[in-house]
What we know:
9 helices, 343 residues, 17% strand, globular, Aminopeptidase, 34% helix, single chain, alpha/beta
Amino acid sequence: MIGRRTLLGTAGALAAGLAGVSTASADPAHLPGGPCIQPDQNVSLASVAGYDDVVRQLDRIARTSHGLVNVGTAGLSGEGRKLLYATVGTGPTVFWLQARIHGNELHSTEAVLQILGHLASGNPAARLIREKLTVVVLPMYNPDGAEANIRQSTIPTRTDLNRDWENFVQPESVAYWKLWRRTAPQLSLDLHHMGQAPVVAGTNDLNQFQIGARSIAPSRMTAEQWLTNRQMAMASVDALDHYGLANVAHYPLIDITNAVFSRMLMGGTAPAGEQPVLHTPTKGAIFYEVRSVGQKSNGQLERLFTIPTMAVLTAAADGSLGSYDVSGYGSLPFAVQEQCGGS
């Protein structure tokens, strides 16, 4: 069995190779909540993975994986782009890992592609994950929004795809719901970005990472789901705390029933012509919020995704997730939003 030391070492080994790349041409102010994007500052997105990059990287990873990674298409976006996903591993526990459901939340795509490449490697922890898990990776849930650099989809409607698992107005939502039903993931993780300048409540410390263990009220979950969510959350927080990479806070308490992960946990809805999933297979579904563009290093942003994600994958694979200590969850601080560079 891989213990906590190896779990953290695996995440660190993956993170160690990530190089920071500057996204800003100006030198932002280093004030509380900073560095910050300035009104006259040019922010280049050239180093951020676009849809064509995802196509190329998935093809490369699959070709060089010697059959370990398979790439599929869930359907087509509103503009006709393939909704690509990859699977790696043959284990009985299915783990759903998605990124960039909001098109302008940039760095999660590159992070999950790095994780996918690592999972196809000869690393001992990667081999264990492949043996125990089947990981379904969605690098770019919202390719049309990503290409337009907007939060929502584009056509036929401009819709927040993370609010569309009740009405299913977008083809992306229908396609991914069907993929969820077919793959039946027990665990799910969603990677997001948040506003540029939150600080940990009661301090002047920049909050770079927020943990979202509840997209719905715990009363809407089973006891097993709420426990699993907190276990996934604390495995994530402990991994980041070990490396001292971020000041961590709770995501604000929300209860949004039409979000993707909310409906994975609750079931009960379906696109037109389909039968709702009444007994959901999903036992845990959480999300990360990482500080968005405004830090100097792309690599740092991506590490804030890769390190906790690898920690949760490893804990799920080695069996430690089911007994993970959640006693510290209630003491995690919240954050407050500040004007970037403000006091």
